[in-house]
Amino acid sequence: NAGVTQTPKFQVLKTGQSMTLQCAQDMNHEYMSWYRQDPGMGLRLIHYSVGAGITDQGEVPNGYNVSRSTTEDFPLRLLSAAPSQTSVYFCASSNTPSGGVSEQYFGPGTRLTVT
Amino acid sequence: GQQVMQIPQYQHVQEGEDFTTYCNSSTTLSNIQWYKQRPGGHPVFLIQLVKSGEVKKQKRLTFQFGEAKKNSSLHITATQTTDVGTYFCAAPPGGSGGSNYKLTFGKGTLLTVNP
User: Fold this and answer.
1) A97, A46 Cβ separation under 8 angstroms
2) How far apart are CA B79 and CA B102, in angstroms?
3) Residue B64: which residues within 8 A CB-CB, separation 6 or more?
4) Around Cβ B48, how many Cβ atoms within 10 Å?
5) What confidence score (pLDDT) does residue A8 get?
6) Residue from B55, B54, B37 nearest B46 by CA
7) How confident is the model at residue A102 (pLDDT cuts 50, 70, 90)?
8) For the CA atoms of B18, B24, B29, B34, what is the dihedral angle to 10 degrees?
9) DSSP 8-state class, residue A100
10) Would you list the DSSP string of B44-102?
């Protein structure tokens, strides 16, 4: 299994441009989430999904859209990039707790710079 | 929203010294998870604690969950250079066990080890 994959690894955008960060998992996990990581801020939840066709907002959803048409894929769309969206973006997936434990599996991340 | 406070923000130790990071919440937690992120890497799940007063060990790492389920700690005995990284605690929204797909992360403790 490849686990959780993210593309691209690096991206530079100009203010106002749009783009989609791709995330895919091959573990048949129900749940998928997007986090952003900024220096000294830990990881903050942007959006999450509890299954195909079901998404919801996290702590910092403004400026981002998501959709989940399949179990495997959970793309994150930046509608009009702003310098404040410069960050490292992590996608994660998890499943129904097994033995009471539900760990999140993280992808390798996308480092985004908006100029 | 729920906050998980983590201290210290940074810790530099000599190889062989012990290290401890602490997490505190103002609300009772259903469970708490710990993750490790190596420099330039992605968070990797270490452990989940669920029961009041629970203590779990993984080799040189000892994890504790407080009796009131509002605090937790990670202690590393005799640090090694391989322990370098940022350690995060994370918890689901208060009282809602099973929502580990929308975690609130502490800001992390960056551990550096001088060989």
Assistant:
1) no
2) 31
3) B49, B53, B54, B55, B72, B73, B75
4) 21
5) 98
6) B37
7) confident
8) -30
9) T
10) EEEEEE-STT-EEEETTEEEEE-TTSSEEEEEESS--GGG-EEEEEEEPSTT-TT-TTS
Asked, as a colleague might, if the bond just before A8 is cis with ω within 30 of 0, I would say: yes
Q: Which residues of chain B are within 8 Å of residue A31 when distances are taken between CB atoms?
A: 100-101
Quick check: A103 and B104 CB within 8 A? no
pLDDT at residue B98 greater than cutoff 70: no
- Count H helices, E strands: chain A? 0, 11
Look at residue A38 and give its three-state secondary structure: strand
**pLDDT tens digits, A24-45:** 999 999 999 999 999 888 899 9
B positions 54-83 inside 8 Å of A (CB):
none
Does the distance separating the beta carbons of B45 and A104 come in below 8 Å?
A: yes
Measure the CA–CA gap between B49 and A101, rounded to whole angstroms: 9
Q: What integer pLDDT is reported at residue B97 of this predicted model?
A: 55
Q: What's the gap between Cα A65 and its chain centre?
A: 10
Question: 């960060």: which residue's tokens?
Answer: A21
pLDDT of residue A2: 85
Q: What is the pLDDT of residue A82?
A: 97
pLDDT of A67 strictly over 80: yes
End-to-end CA distance of chain B: 40
